[in-house]
User: Fold these one by one.
Assistant:
Number 1:
Amino acid sequence: MTVLHQSDLPNVPLLHRGKVRDIYDLGDSLLIVATDRISAYDVILPTPIPDKGKVLTLMTLFWLNYLSDIVENHLITAKVEEYPPILSEYAEILKDRSMIVKKAKVLPIECIVRGYITGSAWKEYQEKGEVCGIKLPKGLRESDKLPNPIFTPSTKAELGEHDVNISFEEATKLIGENLAERIKEISLRLYEKASQYAESKGIIIADTKFEFGLSEGKLILVDEVLTPDSSRFWPKDEYEPGKPQKSFDKQFVRDWLKNSGWREDQPPPAIPQEVVEKTREKYLQALKLLTGQTLASD
């Protein structure tokens, strides 16, 4: 079973269904389940990518541990044998694709750090010479490494809506200057440590997204961390600025969807089997390169 629906956990209250994750209420904690659903351009596609949820969970667990010296995180346990009795009958479904986490008041901001100019940042730079109000040097090419990583927050959109890039000043109005400064500093430190490690494993982290919450008044890292869904991973040995890069992330699906003739006012099409297989392969490759892990089924 790969695509989880509420009926899979009928005894546990479903709190929220996101594009990829289902969140269940355990009373004093939450159960986060990463499904095999995949989204592109803020739309959930009808075809799942087998084992994707496991890759996202295993990679997040790796990074939560690796980055725990910089900021606390929401993880309580991801070992199904430590889950409460109400979840015991679902152990096989939940293994490797779920975690029990602290409840937190999630900040209404996505904390995006960019080390390279690509995606929506490249588009904005071409139009304005800046990204989220940050002036950048003239003459940058697509995929160029930035002089220093930049913090470019965005709003958190409702399901089916688009996130909106905002300036740091706008972020301070949403959550206050002190908190905005803290998440900016922590996000940049997380990116710096993670990107140095990833490069040693042959992967460039072009950009990534972090999320934070407040738990008992303490700022903690929440949600997924440095996965192929929340980051752009490029193969270091094939990096060539001046054009789009090959990637280990869902850019492959984005590109297919963009070239399929689909329009945003239409239901998304089914993903062809060869695109499904290639995407799964890229996710598994990223997992092995970064964490050394493979899935039991592989």
Number 2:
Amino acid sequence: MRLDRFISRQVVHPFCGSGSAEHLPILMYHSIADEAETGVSPYYRTATSPPIFQHHMELLKSNGYRAVDLKTAVTALLNKPKEKLAVVTFDDGYKNFFTAAVPVLQRLNFTATMFLPTAFICKNRRSFKDRECLTWSEVKELHRAGMHFGSHTVTHPKLVELDWPQIKTELADSKKEIENQLGDAADTFAYPFAFPETNKDFVRRLSETLAEVGYVCCATTRIGRAKPGDDLMQLKRLPANSCDDAKLFQAKLDGAYDWIAPLQAGVKKIKRALAPRRPTANSRAAEKKSHA
């Protein structure tokens, strides 16, 4: 029995109400395809089969949600939403967003926000993690059709392991490339890999750098629903994949998965405390200077 599923459905969900305008589910998808992902824990899988994705979106619709882009949702959060909004987000710029997800979204009059790692989005087809990515011509077509695009860095690195000039380059260059290609603002960002929320100094400086570059919000891998008053540079999301049956997906919409957030933070804190300190370029430079 998958523990997070059991606790969410059987223990927490019976005490939850239905979703409300006060809480914003920001769903996190990656690949919309039939992929086995053998050897990967259900919690960490990043593929959602097309029929399951369609069922998720139909459930979202039947629950009274209107799916909007992330920037629209953030604006609503600042003004306290008056209707049930949801955000459907996709990371990594995979081609099957175009072929498998968008037709479903359009039938339901939904939009979505795709976060692009721009080094893998080119004139000719490239792949990332052995999955084909969108081309710029496809991105432009989708943009004209009402889909929204934000940044997922240039090269999809572990930002916490880079020095700050490199981080700023990843943030600024990806934003500039998307804006040059689409002629529209790219001011939403999704953090690649696990968000280092327990590294307070890093998170503080990242937020400052994101704002300096021109982003209005940052979607993370922190689990839960967003609500008014949340830090817009640390937005929580609800991961979804093929293992989310209707009951688990409903539980996530209703807040029965939010209990994982403090547990997730606690595990990260313990791992960080036990892990050997890995020198960054900044710390190496500081050490070299101190011995000069």
Number 3:
Amino acid sequence: MAVRIIADSKGAYEADTDNGRERTGVDPFVWAVRAAELGAGELLVTSIDREGTGKGFDVDLTSRIADAVAIPVIACGGAGQAEYVLQILEQGHADAVCLASELHYDVLRRYGLEHEASSEGNVESLKKAPGFSRVQSGSVPELKGFLAKQGIACRHHEAKTIHA
């Protein structure tokens, strides 16, 4: 079961299903511990409140879950720049990150694909998304290089030129 986390108006978290549309009434920290006890191999923790905003990951949520379980925790939702990735790894105790916008926007901007991709119908909606202006585009090699310079262990490969 995929569970996504959403904070209510008081800042209390709840694990919800169906992309946050179905309330469960379950505390995500209790859910995470129980999932680990039942044999989950890892947890992908997505903060709906941060997803697509480019404002950074939910460090409190991720660190509390990561500290409560003995399995890997993958942070998702909010990556907008390399510094946020570093922050969630160090302060959020995440074992890995899941990000998309930072890489998607880089490809669109770097290779001039905005016009070509516009036929897909999502480029204009991406540009209008509240987080678009906050996302600093970057490539996987650039992100890995940044993290390596900060002392974060990751498989680092030199940037390769993509030929069309």
